[in-house]
Amino acid sequence: MRRLWPLLLSVLFISIIHAEDRPEPIRVCVSTLENSSRDIVNPTWQRNELMQALERTNKSKEVKKGKAARIEAVELESTSGPDSEVRDRNCRFVLYTNLTEVLRAGVPQISLPPPGAVQVGTGMGDPRAYPPDYHSATVEYRIMRAGNPEPWASGLVSAQDRLPEDTLVSQLMDQIASRVASELRKPHPTAPH
User: Residues in the chain with pLDDT < 50?
Assistant: First the structure.
């Protein structure tokens, strides 16, 4: 029994040292999706999809081993702009999303082609060009530091597929979660601690 006691103490000491090396979790307030498109989607459901996708990023090997910080997603009811809940919920960052465009492919759009564009294949609005249930969606996202009105990071994600609009936007939420997690976990000299 005497030999076991020093071994247990050394294991406990090593585990405490490794626990101190783990980066602290990053709290992110996730706002409700703002919808600037003409299409109807459920913004709260999409926000919840984004929060679940952010939680799934914590299942990576780096996070489990303590080499990368966990991301704690906290729901926020507002869609944009300053919110007093951010301070109350102790978030370091705020994630805003905006659904800017949802299009049904094959439906004629009023637009001018870029200079030098050459039309190839079927004509605009031709049902053979795309299947009738083919959609395109674009979501813009901004990461803001709590208390700072300037964007810390931002981006745009788009997808096209034969899926319903809500499902396509949900896939974009997965892409945004992956990009946001990568952005938050990489070292930035100006990131608050």
Answer: 17, 108-122, 127-128, 191-193
pLDDT at 150: 87
Residue 93 · residue 147 · CB < 8 Å? no
Task: Round to whole Å and give the CA distance between 186 and 50.
Answer: 20
What's the pTM?
A: 0.72
Best CA proximity match to 77, nearest among 31, 10, 137, 131: 31
Write the single-letter amino acid at 166. D
Exposure string (b/e) for 123-156, b if CB count within 10 Å is 16 or more? eeeeeeebeeebbbbbbbbbbbbbeeeeebbeee
The type of residue at 109 is Q
DSSP state of 97: E
Evaluate whether 30 touches 45 at the Cβ level (below 8 Å). no
Helices (H), the chain: 4-21, 43-56, 61-64, 84-88, 165-185
Enter the tokens of residue 168: 């396509």
